Amino acid sequence: DGNVIRVGTDATFPPMEFVKDGKRTGFDIELMEALAKTMGKKIQWIDIDFKGLIPGLISNRFDIAASAIYMTDERRKVVNFSDPYYRGGLAVLVRRDDTSIKVPEDLNRGKRVSVQVGTKSVSYLRDNFPGVERVEVEKNQAMFDLLATGRVNAVVTGRPAAVEYARTQPLVRVLDKGLTTELYGFALRKNDTALAEQLNKALQTLRMNGTYDALTDKWFTRKD
Ligand SMILES: NC(=O)CC[C@H](N)C(=O)O
Prior knowledge:
Layout: E1 4-9, E2 18-20, E3 23-25, H1 27-38, E4 42-47, H2 53-58, E5 64-65, H3 73-76, E6 80-81, E7 86-88, E8 90-95, E9 112-116, H4 120-128, E10 133-137, H5 140-148, E11 154-158, H6 159-168, E12 172-174, E13 182-184, E14 187-188, H7 193-208, H8 211-219
Parallel strand pairs: 1-4, 1-5, 9-10, 9-11
Antiparallel strand pairs: 2-3, 5-14, 6-14, 7-13, 8-11, 8-12
Helix pairs in contact: 1-7, 1-8
The chain binds glutamine.
Glutamine binds next to loops.
C-alpha cells in the first residue's frame, strides 16, 4: 500500500519516543504522525531495539527510522538522513550523592558507565574516554536502573532523555557540561530519495505553520 509508510522506533526513551497507557507517544512520534499527515500517508509503527534500527531499515523491514537518531558520519555511510529536526547531544547522568564526578572528564578515572548498545554513546566513550568501563545494555530502562541502584557511576545518553529521567528520579542529576552536540534526523534508505524529499518538504511545512514549535513547546523544557 503506497499510502502507508512503515516507521521503526525504539519507544523506550521519553520524551522522544515511549509507550504510555499502552500507546506510543513522544516528540518523535507526534512529529512523525504530523509529517505523515502532511504527506497524505498513514504510519505503520514497528517496534525494535535501537541497535536493530539501521539493519531493519536497510533490509526493508520499514521505510523510516524515527528514534532520536544522531546524524553521524558513520551512519551516513549506510543510510540517508532527512534534514535535521532537533538538536541534542550526549549528556552525563550521575547520582546526586556522588561528589566524585563533577565534570565529564572525571569519568575517565575508571568510572563504570552504562550505555545502550548501538548508540553513539558507545562509540564516543570508546574513542574518547579510554579510562571508562562501559556497561552496555540493550534497554534504556536497564541503563537508567543501573545508576539508580548504584551498580554504575554514570549513564551517558541523549540530553533530552537524561533531563526527563532526572525529572522523574530525584536521586540523579545531569551534569551541566555535556560531551557533544548532535543533530537528530530521520533515517531512510539511501536509494529512497523521493521519500526523503517528501519528508523534508513536510518538515518545512510544519516549521512554517507552527506545528513544529507547538511540539517542541509540548515536549521539551529547554526552548530553542
Ligand atoms: N537510545 C536512543 O534512542 C538514543 C540514541 C542516540 N541518540 C544515538 O543516536 O545514538
